[in-house]
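FAQ: What does the model actually see?

It sees only this:
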Amino acid sequence: MINQLLEHAPLAQFSVQNDCLQIGGMALTRLVDRVGTTPFYAYDRKKITERVELLRQNLPPEILLHYAIKANPMPAVVQHLASLVDGMDVASAGEMRVALDTILTSEKISFAGPGKKVHELRSAIAAGVVLNIESPQEMESIAQQGVDLGIAPKVAIRINPDFELKSSGIKMSGGSKPFGIDAECVPDVLKRLDLLDLDFVGFHIFSGSQNLNAAAIQEAHEKIVMLAIQLAEYATSPVKLLNIGGGFGVPYFPGDQPLDIAAIGVNLQRLIKRIKQQLPETAVALELGRYLVAEAGIYVCRVLERKVSRGQVFLVTDGGLHHHLAASGNLGQVIRKNYPVVIGNKVQGTAREIVSVVGPLCTPLDKLADQMVMARASVNDLVVVLQSGAYGLTASPTAFLDHPPPIEVLV
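And it is asked to produce this:
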């Protein structure tokens, strides 16, 4: 029987001692004792730091790194990243408050997303946060709120280009989208913006996410820079910031290969030279979320029962899709794939078996692993879902069946 752990490269990111997973410099079993209960999420601050350092080593020094808080808004994680990155991007007033509570100044925080409420606009304007304009109507609303407050709001135009990020898990641009202003409409929007009391900062062009194809990202960067240069001709004030989005993916499933950051860095170095020539006052930012935190996090739950049904072994745990929707298959993927899952206190384990890991919810969709090979587990053993640092707890239906939420810790 092939050990499926060998197919999941993410396990190599964590050390194993005495067959027990290590995180944050300590054994998982010790961490469980410190937390005092399961389930919980744990995020390794050292691994987050190392990921930022990897980017700094491979990307041009001129590139600004921004953290997209939606990937993991835990305040301790955000506070840690604030000391490592150059800016933060938020998508709600709640996330904005978390970002403003860090060492970063308000002009280094940007607020994106459709459907911003008036009170959110007013809070952002008052704080000095950059608002990414998603539509002409929103621009008018921002301007009016600025007049009412006696402040010229800082704004950037979020652009929906006519291209997409190929091979991306989630496409954010190209065609009809609720995000940003269609590129062909931007010249007219810039003309109107010039008549309003708005402090124009620049452009935000986000084309996709969860992409492991370096060539596709390079192509998108090329097109983004060309588009920005073209549209800058219609602006009456300099483009101070060009946010080229992110989209950097991480490997989740067997066969996934890590993204070639070095190749992306080489291409960006060439593009930076072009930008310096044609937009000399423009700084370039990469907005990354998942890539910074996903591989630094784990989700831990405990085996409550071993159940055998017609020859199939089920490990029933105290965790499930209400805590980790992504690992369960997002409420029913057409083709469900297993996240990397291990028995954390028996990572290798001499005795192995094929099992399914299920939670306590009254739905067959409550499944963290389906027919995976792992160490033979007993009651009270610890099931660990790797690659859980991004879009975990806050992207899950925690209110479903009213089970208590898991704890989060930064170690």
